[in-house]
Amino acid sequence: MRRARESEEKESVPLESKSPLNLLSSKRALSFVGAATLAAALFWSAQNGSAGPEIPPTLPPLHSDSYQQRKPASADSGQNHASIEPVAQPLPLAPELASAFGEAQVLNISERIVYWSKFLAISGGDPSRLASFGAGPPIGDSAPLIPDKFNCTTYVEVVAALARGRIPERFFGELLAIRYKDGKASFFSRNHFPEIDWIPNNQKAGIISDVTEAVAKGSGIKTLIASKRIDRSRWITKYLRNKGSRGIASVPNQIPSHEEAKVAYIPLADVERALDDIPTGAIVNIVRRDHPRHPVLISHQGFIAREKGLVMLRHSSLKGEVKTVPLLSYLKTDATNDDGPVAWPVIGINLSRLTPEGVTYF
Question: Which pLDDT value is given to residue 300?
């Protein structure tokens, strides 16, 4: 998750996958990409070096149904039950990555989160350790499925997909389900806002469950609710205008202008009391005070790990470096100082837990 504020001069954006797809990293990876996508990528590469656009491409959105095989709804479930089925793995994995999948197979879901988050942290957060996956299926979004540099959200998404997928063949299907509403990969269905997209959509899909209240109750703490009115239409319009999208005129009519976001959180002053009850592998969402300058309440994401008796936050920084630091230290110093304690203070944490692999509800 990117921070919602990058500088004092620029209004920030919510959760984004920023890094461009290096389509030329492997000749075999080109087989995944349509001619139009490749042409667009080459154009942007020529114009902007390694920086690619974040506006939706001219290709029609590709729904991930062609990549995720869905089972019919169960007669007694009352829900649209969708199980992500394995798909043919197009590229042989590098020995290191194949060996990692073998080692992770015997672990439970929390242990796999710790395993894969550390696997990527060892290299400082270099996504090239996953290069043998290739580019993945073609999508109706300019943001690559595996970026060339992680931000906090893409790091969480990739680790979660590796952990839930269990086997290589399931990785991209899980990643699509996590990053996009209903697994339908397009710019407009990407989970841009953590409070009204990423968290509720993944909860609805059965990918994560909120454990904030349970952790607080176990520690004798009362949770609080942060709220904010989010103008999705205004943000999308401004975002695309800055990127020069030709389709900008139709955006406000397609996207709701105001949505009410509510986030339960454990107050910052009470986090230390709750440490022992936070599950290993939990997803931590850093909650800040509502501020008119910032379009979000949640500014950062990471995972809970435990090392030498300490509760640690493993996360990707704005520079794409994956770090493991004591959670309390980050909350009381790094997180607060990053954006100014007066201007936009941290008020607490929201917690989610990844569900067992392979089951989503669309």
Answer: 95
d(CA 153, CA 159): 10
Q: Where are the alpha helices (DSSP H) in the chain?
A: 35-48, 95-104, 109-121, 152-165, 171-179, 199-204, 212-218, 232-243, 251-254, 271-274, 327-329, 335-339
Question: What is the value of pTM for the model shown?
Answer: 0.75
Cβ neighbours, 10 Å, residue 323: 17
Q: Which domains does the chain have, with CATH numbers?
A: 28-68+92-361 (2.30.260.10)
Please name which of 1, 23, 4 lies closest in space to residue 12, comparing C-alpha atoms. 4
What secondary structure does DSSP assign to 52-107, as a single string?
A: ---SPPSSPPEEGGGTSPPPPPPTTTSS-EEE-------SPPPHHHHHHHHHHTTS
Do 290 and 296 contact (CB within 8 A), yes or no?
Answer: no
Residue where the block lists tokens 């997909």: 161
Q: How far apart are CA 17 and CA 192, in angstroms?
A: 9
Structure tokens of 156?
Answer: 């969480």
Per the CB < 8 A criterion, the answer to whether 349 and 224 are in contact is: no
Closest CA to 141 of 41, 26, 42: 41
Q: How far is CA 310 from the centre of its chain?
A: 25
**Phi, psi angle pair for 287, to nearest 5°:** -100, 130
* Cα 136 from Cα 67, distance rounded (Å): 10
pLDDT digits (tens, 9 = 90+) for 212-227: 999 999 999 999 999 9
27-43 confidence digits (pLDDT tens): 333 333 333 333 333 33
Pairing assessment for the beta strands 322-326 and 346-354 based on DSSP bridges? unpaired
